[in-house]
């Protein structure tokens, strides 16, 4: 089951189709999707009543595996409504735990939602996870507010998956790295684990937005040694004028004695004389 917004669907799909449609075509699974016009967090009595009917009809009991998926406000909904299907798996990207100002008054991003009730039915998302078999919460630990919400999802059945330097559009980045569908399929088939996730997470090494964000963070933290290592690594794997220009500037600073950089492995390989050993040296006297 997916929770999505019209804007999110249009951003990720050239054909303006929900995420679930592509997965259904590839796997033959069933799909139920709720789509909102804008970020509503699905806080509506009609939505509550709809899930009440699904529970009364035993709808979810007909499936061996049930996944609730969403990102951001939809991630909140995926966690909150998962209680309707005990034993389900939840995959939530950057979910809010609640927007109740008494609990999350520190989140000033959604002031227009302050009067919306997050205390009635299907309200506090972390509590709704109690009936889930497993839950996975994906977030960037450097995004302060997202990280604070993630902390509220601390539960014995919840696994937190950190994706540093992806920022505030994690779903889009995971989609562009071709990770998103794989994560959904693994979660729905009961195969997703932290180890499996971080194996897929290696795709970030070839994702330009991630690499640029990491470069910016190292630059802002004034870490030239690590920044030079990053630039060299990226340049060796994929040409990039942005990283070449930054590395050239760092090497110019190093030549002026302003900073210290790590040795350049490429330079050592190109200049064998730079790796001199005692072998073959004339240590005195005639050689045979």
What does this structure look like?
By secondary structure, this protein is of the alpha/beta class. The chain folds into 2 domains: 2-203, Rossmann fold; 207-271, no CATH class. The chain is 43% helix and 10% strand. It contains 14 helices and 6 strands. The strands form 2 sheets. A 4-stranded parallel beta sheet has the order 3-4-5-6, sandwiched between helices.
Q: What are its keywords?
A:
Rossmann fold; two-stranded parallel sheet; 288 residues; four-stranded parallel sheet; alpha/beta; disordered C terminus
- Distance between the terminal alpha carbons, to the nearest Å? 81 Å
Kindly name the structural category.
alpha/beta
When the domains are counted, the total is: 2
Order the strands across the largest sheet as they lie in space. Answer: 3-4-5-6
Helix content: 40-55%
What topology emerges from the helices and strands here?
Layout: E1 2-5, H1 6-12, H2 19-27, E2 33-36, H3 45-56, E3 67-71, H4 73-81, E4 89-93, H5 101-104, H6 125-128, E5 134-139, H7 144-152, E6 158-162, H8 170-176, H9 180-188, H10 194-200, H11 208-220, H12 224-237, H13 241-255, H14 265-270
Briefly, what is this?
By secondary structure, this protein is α/β, with parallel strands linked by helices. It has 14 helices and 6 strands.
């Amino acid at each position: 089951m997916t929770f999505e917004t019209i804007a999110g669907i249009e951003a990720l799909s050239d054909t303006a189709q929900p995420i679930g449609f592509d997965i259904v075509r590839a796997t033959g699974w069933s799909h139920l999707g709720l789509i909102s016009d804008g970020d509503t967090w699905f806080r509506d009595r009609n939505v509550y009543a709809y899930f009440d009917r699904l529970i009364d009809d035993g709808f979810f009991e007909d499936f061996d595996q049930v996944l609730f998926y969403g990102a951001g406000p939809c991630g909140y909904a995926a966690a909150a409504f998962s209680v309707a299907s005990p034993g389900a798996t939840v995959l939530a990207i950057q979910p809010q735990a609640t927007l109740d100002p008494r609990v999350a008054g520190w989140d000033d991003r959604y002031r227009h939602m302050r009067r919306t009730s997050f205390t009635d039915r299907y309200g506090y998302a972390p509590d709704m996870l109690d009936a889930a078999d497993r839950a996975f919460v994906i977030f960037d630990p450097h995004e302060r507010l997202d990280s604070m919400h993630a902390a509220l999802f601390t539960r014995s059945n919840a696994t937190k998956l950190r994706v540093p330097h992806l920022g505030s559009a994690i779903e889009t980045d995971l989609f562009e790295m071709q990770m998103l569908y794989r994560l959904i399929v693994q979660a729905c088939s009961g195969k997703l684990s932290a180890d499996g996730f971080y194996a897929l997470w290696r795709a970030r090494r070839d994702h330009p937005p991630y690499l640029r964000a990491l470069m910016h963070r190292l630059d802002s933290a004034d870490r030239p040694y690590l920044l030079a290592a990053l630039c060299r690594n990226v340049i060796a794997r994929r040409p990039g004028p942005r990283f070449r220009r930054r590395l050239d500037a760092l090497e110019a600073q190093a030549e002026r004695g302003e900073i210290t950089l790590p040795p350049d492995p490429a330079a050592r390989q190109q200049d064998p004389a730079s790796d001199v050993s005692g072998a073959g040296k004339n240590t005195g006297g005639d050689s045979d």
